[in-house]
């Protein structure tokens, strides 16, 4: 009998925060996709609820605390031999400005119009953003 090889996969949560028609993106550094723009987010921890992970990641990275998080979409992608399921939430009722709370991972936060997004968006997050703009709930990439 052949030994079964299990493929590892990861679950990521990301938060789309819009204000005045603009989307908040951070310039990634010292992490996958360094030098590209991405949504606030990170990995789901063991036994953590998805919405709690999204709330935690947004707070850890930006200092912002959303009143409400709403599921937007799911993307299924592979990158660098890793398989990711990425879940995106929309944050509403967020006041204040994003801070650089994890300076080793993000160098700046910036607001972008969805019609004038930067070209260098972290590919898994680009799939989320494209799906958000197209109002798609699920996207393969």
Characterize the structure shown.
The protein has helices at residues 50-62, 123-133; strands at 9-19, 22-28, 37-38, 41-43, 68-79, 82-92, 106-113, 138-140. It contains two helices and eight strands, in the order ββββαβββαβ. The chain has one domain (11-140): Nucleoside Triphosphate Pyrophosphohydrolase (Alpha-Beta Complex), CATH 3.90.79. Helix content is 17%, strand content 40%. The model has no long low-confidence stretch (mean pLDDT 91). The chain is α+β, with helices and mostly antiparallel strands. It starts with 8 loop residues before the first strand and ends with a strand. Strands 1, 2, 3, 4, 5, 6, 7 and 8 form an eight-stranded mixed β-sheet that branches.
> How many separate structural domains?
1
Question: Tally the helices: what do you get?
Answer: 2
Q: Can you name the CATH architecture?
A: Alpha-Beta Complex
CATH fold-level label: Nucleoside Triphosphate Pyrophosphohydrolase
The count of β-strands is 8
Mean pLDDT: 91
Order of helices and strands: EEEEHEEEHE
* Helix proportion range: 10-25%
What proportion strand?
Answer: 35-45%
Q: What is the makeup of the main sheet?
A: 8 strands, mixed
Name the CATH homologous superfamily: Nucleoside Triphosphate Pyrophosphohydrolase
Overall geometry comes to globular
InterPro entries: Nudix_hydrolase, NUDIX_hydrolase-like_dom_sf, NUDIX_hydrolase_CS, NUDIX_hydrolase_dom
Keywords: Hydrolase
Protein name: DNA mismatch repair protein MutT
Pfam family, one: NUDIX
Short précis:
The protein has 2 helices and 8 strands.
């Amino acid at each position: 009998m052949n030994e079964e090889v299990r493929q590892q996969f990861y679950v990521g949560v990301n938060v789309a925060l819009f204000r005045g028609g603009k989307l908040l993106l951070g310039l990634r550094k010292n992490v996958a996709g360094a030098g590209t723009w991405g949504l606030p987010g990170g990995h789901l921890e063991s036994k953590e609820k998805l919405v709690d992970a999204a709330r935690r990641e947004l707070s850890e990275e930006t200092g912002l605390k959303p009143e409400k998080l709403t599921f937007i979409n799911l993307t299924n992608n592979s990158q660098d031999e890793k398989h990711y399921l990425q879940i995106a939430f929309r944050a509403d009722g967020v006041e204040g400005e994003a801070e650089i709370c994890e300076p080793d991972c993000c160098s700046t936060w910036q607001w972008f119009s969805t019609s004038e997004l930067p070209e260098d968006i972290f590919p898994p997050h680009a799939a989320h953003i494209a799906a958000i703009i197209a109002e798609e709930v699920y996207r393969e990439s």
